[in-house]
Amino acid sequence: MMTFFAILALLAVLMAFRMPIAFAMGISGFVGLAVQLGPRPAFAVLERTFFDSSASFILVAIPLFILMAELLTSGDVTRRAIFACQAWLGHVKGGLAMATVGASVILAALVGSSTASTAAMSASAFPEMRNHNYSQRLAAAVVSVGGTLAVVVPPSIVLVVYGVLTETSIGKLFIAGIIPGLLTALGLVVVIKVIAHTTDQAPKGDPFDLGRAVKASRHILPLTVLMVLVIGAIYGGIASPSEAAALGVMGSLILVLLQRTLSFLEFSRSVSGAIRATVMIVAIVACSAIFSNYLAFTRITHGLLEFVATTDMSRGQIMAIIIVALLVMGMFMDQLAILSLAMPLAFPTAMALDYDPVWFGIVVTKTVEIGLLTPPLGLNVYVASAQTGVPLSKIFRGILPFFLMELVVLLLLLLVPEITLWLPGMMLK
């Protein structure tokens, strides 16, 4: 046990010196294996584990979904979708903020990355809200919380990583994320409505112009068709997530080429961005597997499961402890780091308590999504602040009512599992 705490201390020290989480976990896991088994067996485990975890076919979905997002963003398609939503809703009080939420749902279904979605909204929606006299605090808060939808709404990269780490069906995870994602978006709209009618932070926009709205909608139609094709192929059992991702890349490329909005330079930047993000994610998955192997050899996981089986605590109390731990981790770490660190222990515990792995995945994903908004890290807030120039303290204050709404949605998902499991249960086998 002393060795285990020493390895945890090594991991903490490496992270404190800002070593990437993948390398910190890989080094700590390898050192633990070397102490536990000896250097030569540790190298053998390292070789096998790294190959097995990084050669998984399902990982093909990650670079494809990321490339789809890069192509649509570089091709200016996502920005046009934002303006289309604003054309329909911008005339009501708080309408521009609500339109930003609507555009965030569309971006989430196409981008899969919360930081990319937040950056796009900060560049497009924030200036529009400021031009219509929205307060800095509300405008920056809306683009920050809107970006978090990409964590739950498919095709979320976080859901893919969770599926790989826990060997859970990624197709079912994608479908399970639809209703929680829409429920979160509805909650954001309700909060905006309340703020708009109780404060002067969200005035009315320009008068409604049906012609302009219809004209702007031309840019949403192809995106809607692409979303239906990608998610519908998974839901109908026609394609696996990897195959659906390939379909999405092909559709995105055709779309930007037809609209002539993607230059060769932008295309090469999209490919480079997808490669960089993929390498980082695959490294996290592989190094997490090394650390998980160390935990297996130390029998820490086995001991934790025995504790769960013999403790007097209820299932709900143990789940509450897991949720609180994830929320605390979200205050200091990004989503992928939380998954790679927590799932080797939290997932077996949840399975021992007879929770559904798909439901647990959505709950975990929703919990780490909230971490994107909590200080001191609050990654989405930092992205929004850097893009908009609004001070961090002002954005964090603006986020507070949205944060409380996020906790309400999380509580609903915990208490009513059918919200998450209904759609996956209807999937064609």
TrEMBL record:
Signal peptide: none annotated. Keywords: Cell inner membrane, Cell membrane, Membrane, Transmembrane, Transmembrane helix, Transport. Its main location: membrane. GO terms for cellular component: plasma membrane. Residues 8-419 form the TRAP C4-dicarboxylate transport system permease DctM subunit domain. GO terms for molecular function: transmembrane transporter activity. Pfam families: DctM. It is a multi-pass membrane protein. The chain crosses the membrane at residues 50-69, 81-99, 138-162, 174-196, 220-238, 244-265, 277-297, 317-346, 358-379, 399-423. It is found in: Cell inner membrane. InterPro entries: DctM (IPR010656), TRAP_DctM (IPR004681). NCBIfam families: dctM. The complex comprises the extracytoplasmic solute receptor protein and the two transmembrane proteins. Part of the tripartite ATP-independent periplasmic (TRAP) transport system. PANTHER family: C4-DICARBOXYLATE TRAP TRANSPORTER LARGE PERMEASE PROTEIN DCTM (PTHR33362:SF5), SIALIC ACID TRAP TRANSPORTER PERMEASE PROTEIN SIAT-RELATED (PTHR33362). Belongs to the TRAP transporter large permease family. This is TRAP transporter large permease protein. It comes from Thalassobius vesicularis.
